[in-house]
Amino acid sequence: MNRWFILVLVCVAQFMVVLDATIVNVALPSIQHGLGFSPAGLQWVVNAYTLVFGGFLLLGGRASDLFGRQRLFLIGLAVFSIASLINGVATSSGLLVGGRVLQGLGAALVSPAALSIVTTTFAEGSERTKALGIWSAIAAGGGAVGLLVGGFLTDVLSWRWVFFINLPIGLVAFVLAIRYIANTRAEKRPETVDIAGATTVTAGLLVLVYDIVKAQQYGWLSGRTIGLFAVAVALLGAFVLIESRSKAPLIRLGIFRIRSLTSANAAMLFVASGLFGMFYFASIYVQEILGYSPMQAGAAFVPVTFGIVIGAGAAQGLIKKFGVRLVPVVGIIAAAAGLILLSRIPLHGTYLRDLFPGLMIMSIGMGLTFVPVTLIATTNIHPEDAGLASGLFNTSQQVGGALGLAMLSSIAASRTSSSHAVSHAAALVDGFQVAFLLGAGFMILAAILVVALIRGHHVASINTEEAVVVAA
Q1: Cβ–Cβ contacts within 10 Å for residue 258, how many?
Q2: Residues 104, 115, 86, CA angle at the centre, nearest 5°?
Q3: Is residue 64 helix, strand or coil?
Q4: Cα distances (angstroms) measured from residue 173 to each of 12, 74, 389
Q5: Which option is the CATH number for 3-194+246-466: 1.10.240.10, 3.40.630.10, 1.20.1250.20, 1.10.10.60?
Q6: pLDDT of 22-48, one tens digit each?
Q7: Residues near 394 by Cβ (< 8 Å), separated by ≥ 6?
Q8: Distance, CA of 237 to CA of 240 (rounded, Å)
């Protein structure tokens, strides 16, 4: 089968998974009204999906190596689609959050299997660079497109259709994957997967995010906040202990000795923290402050998609000319500059003057960042570890996004509650401004990590001389 058709197929599935992380954002007010969510509980419509997605990606990556990439891809598509149906017909807030948990599990099986299929289908060199460029543009663009599609469906039909839309996509991808994708497995693989490890790391992350979210209510130094933090640390510590002693660990801890993988994942953790926050707060700003309808709010983010695609396409030519280490630094700094511009949004703002410049600068920066960071994270990896490396990279994005959003939301809420602004809307804007500025700080930390940790010999196997530009 043509490798490029396989690439298109797995990219469509990944697009659906990434899109679902943001498609609900513009529908949140309608979901809250329809199912009676409390303001504090509403955030779990996003976080329940993101955290389970991030926590079980590690299990999905290893399981794809053990049981076969196509098999996990198919199981993930089935779980994701069934969960989407549950969400679409949900009649209570608890059922919807439960469905989002199941949906996150399905995504955790699909995503690493899909990226592993890409990295094992295309050999290192120019073809893999081109394939990953397409992958990065489509996957990253899914987040922005989700806002547009979510707004359209919410306005024209109802919020339930932001979940129903996954059903035909999942069905088509499932049928084609059965026929055209081979069930390849790693040559060297353990006999079992590490359920205990996946459970402890996911539980630890859930408790940590819950603690961050509740810190504003309980107090950052209260006994309850400190106690929950201790529980999260204990669970994550148990995860490390389990991995170090297991005969078939979820994560072979020795993989972190690969400098390129560790550095790229650490940088992506901070990049995602700022990126998730941008979508969340900008979406609320245009609806709650500027008075946009869900469809108008979604349309406001269309340029973000183009910016990411433009940046991802340009990145490959720039990698060839300047090297894979410099391009992500430039992209991350550009994204930070965009967030700094967004931190100046006023109460009585306009889209073209106050939002558009920051959104475009950040989105192009993100496009410049995703391609080289993905290349760095997946180089120097043995074929038997392709699924694990894919799972780790996707985990960095999801966990970084969840932790960053929880932290930024909590700090923004604290700023809003302590603001002396003349109106609630003005106090909200004060919180948004602080969140964008801190998001820029996360980005700058990511750039520092790339500069400080990655050296030329760490990425020598990436053939920059043969990098091929993907037309946007």
Answers
A1: 18
A2: 20
A3: helix
A4: 8, 9, 24
A5: 1.20.1250.20
A6: 778 778 778 877 887 765 567 778 778
A7: 54, 57, 61, 111, 112, 115
A8: 5
